[in-house]
Specification:
There is one protein chain. The protein has about 350 residues and is of the alpha+beta class. It folds into three domains: about 1-10 and about 250-350, Endonuclease I-creI, CATH 3.10.28; about 25-120, no CATH class; about 135-240, Endonuclease I-creI. The protein is built from 16 helices and 16 strands. The chain has helices spanning about 1-5, 20, 25-30, 40-55, 60-65, 80-85, 95-105, 110-115, 140-150, 165-180, 225-235, 245-250, 255-265, 285-295, 320-330, 335-350, and strands at about 25, 35-40, 90-95, 115-120, 135, 150-155, 160-165, 185-190, 200-205, 215-220, 235-240, 240, 270, 275-280, 305-310, 310-315. It has a five-stranded antiparallel β-sheet. A four-stranded antiparallel β-sheet has the order 13-14-16-15. It has a three-stranded antiparallel β-sheet with strand order 3-2-4. Helix 9 (about 140-150) packs across helix 10 (about 165-180) and helix 15 (about 320-330) crosses helix 16. It is elongated, with a radius of gyration of 24 Å. About 35% of the residues are buried. Residues about 1-20 have low confidence and may be disordered.
């Protein structure tokens, strides 16, 4: 597999159905959200129910209730749950929305415009306020890059987590998630330590403005965030297993620029003489980063390995002035320290 990847390094990948891949609509992901819940505009929902049932009293329509697989109370001759749903706004499952959609003439495009929030469970407080379509832009690429770097998506609960000692990068991730999911992450001050080790949580912080300088913090996001991210990006982060999926390789250029930048800010080192160096324990991930750099005509050295603490680790460099000048102009860095080194490299190369 890796030998095949190396053969692609300087061959740009042709985007597959690029117009489609620029945006993600609800119709593209609803089938994977069937066990999750949605809050939808109440008047719009009632219109769907009336349309799907073809009845003025859908909660009494026994055949309709059977089709949408709700409980029918023989004593009262009605579906009490549906009657209650018609009376007030409540969360309903995507499974029920799908059944209603199939029985009505409403489109997924219209449904997505009337969504208020999405969450993992009926009684869950972890709502997200997504506005469809989701644009696969540089910002989304940076979210994925940071998760591949110093972030994670919990294997069991799908919760998104990000930690970094660089306050600028933590604030960057906080703002990016806010822009895409419409929520603030929970912020915890963390005792500094190695990423792979469990660290002591010191206290919860209410706002980003309260984050002390040079402090390790952890950002936490609800289950539905991780679920949606893995649906869109091809199970790219499940616990400790991370990868650049084939889906990601076919996403737009701006998305890839964001991914490379954020990943390097977390995992890379800016050498004062040799330029950007990417580090990673996963050789295949670095090979795919090189593929993406090659699409922008930024050439890099082959992936090499070294042993540290008894484990084989991998890296590659982007060197020569033409390459790190392109890197600076196109990709840059969110780390003030790394950006300053890169700027000096570029200036000295002129």
């Amino acid at each position: 597999m890796l030998d095949m990847l190396r053969g692609w390094i300087f061959k740009p990948i042709s985007p597959i159905n690029d117009m489609y891949l620029n945006n993600i609509h609800l119709k593209d992901i609803y089938s994977n959200l069937q066990n999750y819940f949605v809050e939808i505009d109440h008047d719009f929902l009632k219109d769907i129910i009336f349309s799907a049932s073809g009845s003025d009293f859908p909660w009494k329509n026994k055949e309709f209730i059977r089709k949408i697989k709700l409980s029918y109370n023989k004593a009262s001759k009605r579906a009490i749950g549906l009657e209650s749903l018609m009376g007030k706004n409540r969360k309903i499952s995507f499974r029920l929305i799908t059944r209603l959609k199939e029985l009505s003439n409403v489109s997924w495009d219209k449904i997505e415009k009337n969504i208020i929030s999405i969450c993992a469970g009926k009684n869950s407080k972890g709502k997200v306020y997504i506005k469809f379509p989701l644009v696969l832009d540089k910002d989304f690429g940076m979210i994925v890059g940071h998760i591949l770097g110093d972030g994670s998506i919990d294997k069991k609960y799908n919760q998104v987590f990000f930690t970094n000692k660089d306050k600028n990068l933590s604030l960057e991730f906080f703002k990016l998630m806010k822009s895409k999911f419409g929520i603030d992450g929970r912020i915890w001050l963390q005792k500094s330590g190695k990423f792979a080790e469990k660290s002591k949580w010191i206290k919860r912080i209410n706002t980003p403005d309260e984050i002390p300088a040079n402090s390790q913090i952890g950002l936490f996001y609800p289950t539905i965030c991780g679920k949606i991210l893995n649906i869109i990006f091809g199970d790219f982060a499940i616990g400790k297993e991370k990868k650049i999926s084939n889906k990601i390789l076919n996403f737009p250029s701006e998305f890839k620029i964001g991914l490379i930048r954020a990943f390097f800010d977390d995992e890379g080192h800016m050498d004062r003489e040799r330029g950007p160096r990417f580090h990673q324990d996963r050789e295949e991930m670095l090979e795919k980063i090189r593929i993406m750099l090659g699409e922008f005509n930024i050439n890099s050295c082959p992936v090499r390995s070294y042993f540290r603490e008894g484990k084989e680790r991998y890296y590659f460099n982007v060197n020569h002035r033409d390459n790190y000048t392109k890197y600076y102009k196109l990709i840059g860095s969110g780390s003030e320290k790394k950006l300053k080194v890169l700027q000096n490299l570029v200036a000295n190369a002129q």
